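Thread title: Can someone regenerate the structure for this chain?

I was given the following input by a collaborator and told the matching structure tokens would be attached. They weren't. Posting the sequence so someone can regenerate them.
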Amino acid sequence: MKRIKGMIFFDLGHTLVEGTHPSVRRVLAQRLGLSEKETRRVGRLIMTYPAREPDSLAHAILSLVPRLDRAGIGHIVEDVWKAQSGAAAVRPGAAALLHSLKSAGYGLGILSNTWYPFFLGVSTFCREITEAVDHVIVSYEAGKKKPDVDLYRTARQETGAGELPCWMVGDTYELDMAPAMTAGFSTVWLLTHPERETPLLARVLRGELPRPDWTAACLDEIGPYFGL
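Best answer:
Regenerated them for you:
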């Protein structure tokens, strides 16, 4: 690794890129008729299973929820797969921020809960993002997902960051800020959807949870924290 100031890891969804809403977990739950318990189990599978084609994922879901219709599940998974592979779009200011940070001497990484078709879409339609980063750690390849602290430790180790400073930039306290703090990262909380974070934000403001090192309402507010 060339000499850098430190490694800055970014979440993908709602941080550097936008995708579909609701989440893929909720879309599949609705179309497959899953219970809430099944939704949680299937959601974890989607994000940590290394499927690179829909049939493989359909079989894995069927093994997890054997009551599902064998004939219909394949078509549903394929439909959602295709929709997700074309859904990614770069968030305003994301590419400019990455290039500025890289020019300033920081190493850049992606650390994200995502499944293969969405990341394929990011690689296809958001190349200004993937080409700017030095390292990619994604849950479907790692076999684990945030908020697993080991994913953060793996990111530090696999990128060769060692004792260099590491930062995590993400939009959720539970998945990005809390585990990153536990792993010894500095943190930047990007409040792209503050309404989703209101209960945790209130606890942070009351001093019940540790504050991130920086909080931003948009990507343009992150640069000053890194001296840009």
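The chain has two domains: 7-19+89-226, 24-85.
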